[in-house]
Amino acid sequence: VKISRISDIQGRTLKEREQKLREAGESLKMMEAQRKKLVSDISHELGTPMTSIQGYVKAMLDGVVPADGEYLGMIYGKVQYVNQLVADLFQLSRLESNKIPFTFRLLTPEELLRPYTTKFKIDADKAGVELSFTSCSQAAEAPIGSRKLVKADPYRIEQVMTNFVHNAIKFTPSGGAIQIEAELGDAPGEQSGTSLIVRVTDTGIGLHEESLPYVFERFYRVKAADGEGVSGTGLGLAISREIILQHNGTIGVISKYGEGSTFYFTLPMVDMEQKGTMV
Ligand code: ADP
């Protein structure tokens, strides 16, 4: 409940005014609780690696451990992680406050997705995972007039795809497979208008059902069986969600623990006649 002007609560009965003020108070309290949680999460996420760095350096200074490649390498890894975390946080906060300009273009699904498939294949290959890409042939076969184009910022969509595919590689053991599919259809929950649906499916470790509602939240990471968190800032999917929402699209995941996951997003499509238009 937002009360921005006094007239928002004037002209009501006393009871209504009290109710309105109470609701506004509740939502302020909720925002304050969210802000506190964010500050505490950030302190924790930054504090943990910083404490390790301090410990390693102190141990070296005291001569408890040698200042050799092994320890310097560990420190370097932590510093790199802190840097990545700060960069991701900065980007997420700029996205959330609409400070990142998007350059939307009208493209065919192929034009949007094809450019990075080779790069992804090489990345997957290195991890011993097979990667395939199937794009909606529908779009190419349809008569020109009825073809649809997707309105997207290719650079930002590449970022989302990189996050999905790199996660798929990270959470899929060697010998597994990743499939990227693009097809036209109705976005889940949407009645009107065609969308481009892009799915990244892996045969990896999958997610427990109780994790599914949280994976797109900042800092959410599933703990590995040995209690150790996997590498990563836990911000990639939160950034991806912001990017897709700013495209008026939807984002989601379907997964089965032990079998694999499908991360998907949808983007609204428009008629071909508008090609060339910068939006
Ligand atoms: P991170 O940088 O830690 O990977 P993300 O926001 O990209 O952060 O992902 C959040 C969490 O979601 C991951 O730590 C992991 O627990 C889970 N996750 C993401 N992608 C997959 C996947 N393909 N298979 C299984 N779990 C995944």
From TrEMBL:
<dbReference type="InterPro" id="IPR036890">
    <property type="entry name" value="HATPase_C_sf"/>
</dbReference>
<dbReference type="InterPro" id="IPR005467">
    <property type="entry name" value="His_kinase_dom"/>
</dbReference>
<keyword id="KW-0597">Phosphoprotein</keyword>
<keyword id="KW-0902">Two-component regulatory system</keyword>
<dbReference type="InterPro" id="IPR050736">
    <property type="entry name" value="Sensor_HK_Regulatory"/>
</dbReference>
<keyword id="KW-0547">Nucleotide-binding</keyword>
<dbReference type="InterPro" id="IPR036097">
    <property type="entry name" value="HisK_dim/P_sf"/>
</dbReference>
<keyword id="KW-0067">ATP-binding</keyword>
<dbReference type="Pfam" id="PF02518">
    <property type="entry name" value="HATPase_c"/>
</dbReference>
<dbReference type="Pfam" id="PF00512">
    <property type="entry name" value="HisKA"/>
</dbReference>
<keyword id="KW-0808">Transferase</keyword>
<keyword id="KW-0418">Kinase</keyword>
<dbReference type="InterPro" id="IPR003594">
    <property type="entry name" value="HATPase_dom"/>
</dbReference>
<protein>
    <recommendedName>
        <fullName>histidine kinase</fullName>
        <ecNumber>2.7.13.3</ecNumber>
    </recommendedName>
</protein>
<dbReference type="GO" id="GO:0016301">
    <property type="term" value="F:kinase activity"/>
</dbReference>
<feature type="domain" description="Histidine kinase">
    <location>
        <begin position="41"/>
        <end position="271"/>
    </location>
</feature>
<dbReference type="InterPro" id="IPR003661">
    <property type="entry name" value="HisK_dim/P_dom"/>
</dbReference>
<dbReference type="InterPro" id="IPR004358">
    <property type="entry name" value="Sig_transdc_His_kin-like_C"/>
</dbReference>
